[in-house]
Design brief:
This protein is α/β, with parallel strands linked by helices. It has helices at residues 66-98, 127-142, 160-179, 197-202, 229-235, 261-286, 294-297, 305-311, 320-331, 347-355, 377-384; strands at residues 103-108, 115-122, 146-155, 157-159, 186-195, 207-210, 215-217, 302-304, 316-317, 337-342, 364-368, 371-375, 389-391. The longest helix has 33 residues, at 66-98. It is flat and about 125 Å long.
């Protein structure tokens, strides 16, 4: 809508109706005097519009110095080399473990030509335990500087076959050294446990030292078995295993069927023959050192070091240092050089220990009363399969 002029004033040009008002003129007045023509009075310059606001241009990007570029490149190169070196060492460790390289740790400096090798036998004795032991003792056997062997035993025992293989391998070590013209004595030093299969392998030694707190003995054979036939009957589960005609004892000892007298007698005979083998090993290894008959000693009992010494199962109560002293004396060494032989951990052991992941072949971890337990399906299968064991179960 076009504004109308006030009374007494002429019409307004519509083209300037919406134009901004003229700037003030006439000095301090805010507008021209009443009736004066618009614009500045004569002699005054026309009003200038204020200049537009000025925004300074953005600062130029900082120039990277040549020295800083060199430093950054060098730092990145070192970081990359560090990663590459760690990867290389990891795979090198894996290759060494894959080739089962035996690590040697010097315990006592001495004459390198008078070496005493300390070889561990620890944990539950299984087939893999023997393989590891064989690799270690083979290196000691081939080393012409090794003049004596110390078995560092700390095990509750384990499989019958693996225990006997370790025992026989120790005898072979002495035989091979004798062929090379070296009378290499073997001394066993017992840790916290040297029971059942642990004592079995110790009997291959020429001298046995046990710590004051060692538990040993437990001479006997056990075959863990479970029978769930009554539970199967309750739930309507029936075993339908088929055996070959004439092989009446093929399924003897099945946990899904009631045990018969014939089956039990058959299994008992197997265990007793294996027990006789154990007693033969003890009498052969200890000989006249035994105080009493083997049948009175081999009753399955676990003995303290004091009781074992009284029965002649061990020769001395002491520690590794005592075993070293005895081995050096038996080998006629004047300045023995003591080295511990062991295999380095595999890459799977390293990764699982660094990341708290389950060990290789394990399905996961289980916490029991605050204790983290690794579930190993292979191990569970081995110990749920009936087999004869030189093993102390602590009961």
């Amino acid at each position: 809508m076009v504004p109308q002029p006030p009374p007494g004033q002429g019409p307004i040009d519509p083209r300037g109706a919406f134009s901004p008002p003229p700037p003030p003129s006439g000095g301090p007045q805010f507008g021209p005097p009443h009736g004066a023509p618009p614009g500045p009075p004569p002699g005054y310059p026309p009003m200038m519009m204020p200049p537009p606001m000025f925004y300074p241009p953005p600062p130029p990007p900082p120039q990277r110095s040549f020295a800083r570029g060199i430093f950054t490149t060098l730092a990145m190169s070192i970081f990359g080399l560090s990663i590459a070196l760690n990867v290389y060492l990891l795979f090198a460790t894996a290759l060494m473990s894959g080739s089962k390289h035996v690590k040697e740790e010097t315990l006592t400096e001495g004459n390198l030509n008078e070496e005493i090798a300390v070889v561990p036998v620890s944990g539950i004795i299984r087939g893999e335990t023997y393989k590891e032991f064989d690799r270690i003792i083979t290196q000691a056997e081939k080393d012409s500087n090794v003049k004596a062997l110390i078995l560092d035993v700390d095990t509750p025992g384990g499989e019958v076959g693996a225990s006997d293989e370790i025992y026989q391998r120790i005898l072979k070590f002495k035989s091979e050294k004798a062929k090379a013209g070296v009378t290499a004595p073997v001394v066993a030093t017992m840790g916290s446990l040297a029971t059942s299969g642990g004592y079995y392998v110790s009997c291959a030694a020429d001298y046995i030292v046990a710590q004051p707190t060692t538990l040993t003995g437990n001479i006997g054979v056990i075959m863990p078995r479970y029978n769930v036939s009554k539970l199967c009957e309750k739930w309507g589960i029936e075993e339908t295993t088929i055996t070959s005609t004439g092989a009446t004892f093929k399924n003897a000892g099945s946990m899904f069927q009631p045990e018969t007298a014939e089956d039990r007698a058959y299994i008992q005979n197997l265990i007793d023959q294996t027990f006789a083998q154990f007693k033969t090993v003890v009498t052969t290894g200890r000989g006249t050192n035994l105080k009493g008959t083997i049948d009175s000693i081999a009753n399955g009992k676990v003995y303290t070091a004091n009781d074992a010494a009284k029965l002649g199962l061990i020769d001395k109560i002491g520690y590794l240092s005592d075993a070293v002293t005895k081995a050096a004396k038996m080998a006629g060494l004047s300045k023995e050089h003591v080295v511990r032989y062991e295999e380095p951990p595999s890459i799977f052991d390293i990764l699982s220990s660094k990341s708290n992941l389950p060990a290789q072949g394990a399905s996961g971890n289980l916490t029991v009363n605050g204790v983290n337990v690794t579930l190993d399906p292979k191990l569970i299968q081995e110990f749920t399969t009936p087999r004869m064991m030189y093993l102390w179960r602590g009961n």
